[in-house]
Every structure is written in structure tokens, then in C-alpha cells.
Amino acid sequence: MWRDVSKGQLFQGDVFEGLAAWTGDKAQCIVADPPYFQVQTKEEWDNLWPDEEAYLDWTAQWVKAASQHLAPDGILYIFGQPGKREHVWLKVCAHLVDTLAFHDLIVWDRAVGYNERRDSFTPQFEMILALRHPEANKVFFDKDAVRIPYDEKTIQTYLRDNRYKDKEAREKHLRRGKYATNILRVPSLKGSSKEKIGHPTQKPISLIDQLIRSSSKPGDLVLDPFLGSGTTSVVCERTDRRWIGIESSGDYVQMTEERLATLFP
């Protein structure tokens, strides 16, 4: 059963049960950080499938179910990780473009590598597959919402460029910042981070914020089918979006509730 949590709604239970139980508005944006399949070897939730084929079938099913709740011009973001132990992500991408239409493939540059390996380069990035409805001619995307500010020194350097005759218009443009690319450089959360609250795959607020602000407007609904530590709900609360989240773990539900309570004590 869905229940109110702060300004959003949360379902504790299986992702398919939650998606089937939701009868409200369509989500303008879906942000999904599902299990990666046998990457978190010590976590039961990442080792529920006997083989890759079972995991791929489960993935295709939940994406299809989630897409029923996606607005016609919405974007569905799915996190994944390529690597020696995570090669199934490449198959996930290939499978899902048969379920929805490919829109983009975003690189999350974690800024710091992890699990250094002797026989390959140190992994430093994850990926975010962006999908849309096949029939969508265009999707809602606000590039201005995620501009990256120039520092003052850079602005003054550009203003000295004599090719631009209208200095006032040029400065106005520069102060709006540059457009973000599909390589998002956001440092991953380390154990010492004040933001870290105990979830092993917790994503940074800044990263989720860029996905949500670019792909929805204030007042829009955002869906997270694997809510985890509640980062999506935190971003939505801060940016005036409505949110719905599904999470099977009672511990993580409690984690989200406690986290939101610190925002609005």
C-alpha cells in the first residue's frame, strides 16, 4: 500500500507490486538505480538471480512495467556499470532498446577510481542509459536548468575576445554558464562524506539533481522504482517536485524516512 512520506509517497515492497498498485499521475521522469547483478557480492538484493538470462528477463519486465507510468514526453534513466564483473550491463543496454527507444547514454565520471585491478585500467565511471517512448517525437529536456557556471576569471578572459561586438549580450550569455555535456563529473561518495548514510551504492545528490532538474519541472512527478537511500526523494523535496518511490527493504525505507526528517524536522 502506498503511504505518504513527507511530500511524496512510498511503497514498501516488490517493484512489480508497487508499479501495479500505483494509479496516480504519470511520471515526467523516472530515475532507476536497480541491482547490477552480482556486483555487490555481499548484498542479498544483488544476488537474487541464478544466471544472467534470468536477470535480463527481470530487467526487461520491470522496465516495461515502469514505462507504463512514464509521461509521453518523459525520460527513463537507468544506472549501470561496465567492467569485468559488470559486463552484463552491455547486454542490458542491448535488450532495453527493444523495450523503449534509445535517447542517450550518459557517463558518470566518479572522479576517483575504485577497486584497482592488476590487469586493467582502474574503473572510474558508471553509465546512465536514457530511454524514451518509441512514439515520442521529442522529450522534455531543460538544458538551461543544468548550466555550469563559469568562474569570474574565465568570464573576463572571454569578454576580452574582440570577435564579440555586443559585450553586454556576451557577458549575459557567459553569466548563464555553459551547457552540461553527457559526461557528468561528480565525485562518488566516500565513507567520510557527510552525505553518506550507509547504503553501499548511494548516489550523490548532485548527480541525481542534474537528472531530475533537466528532465522535469517544479510540480512534476518523479518516480524511483528502487528508492534505496532516498536520494531521489531528497532532490525532489529540495526542488519542489512530487515523488513516488518503491523500496523492498524495510531498513532502507527507514533510512529514507530518517533522512527526510532531517530536511524538515
Automatic annotation (TrEMBL):
Protein's UniProt name: Methyltransferase
Family: Belongs to the N(4)/N(6)-methyltransferase family.
Leader peptide range in chain numbering: none
GO cellular component, one term: cytoplasm
Organism field: Puniceicoccus vermicola
EC number, as in UniProt: 2.1.1.-
The organism's place on the tree of life at top rank: Bacteria
GO MF: DNA binding; N-methyltransferase activity; site-specific DNA-methyltransferase (adenine-specific) activity
Domain DNA methylase N-4/N-6: 28-258
Short name of any one Pfam family annotated for the protein: N6_N4_Mtase
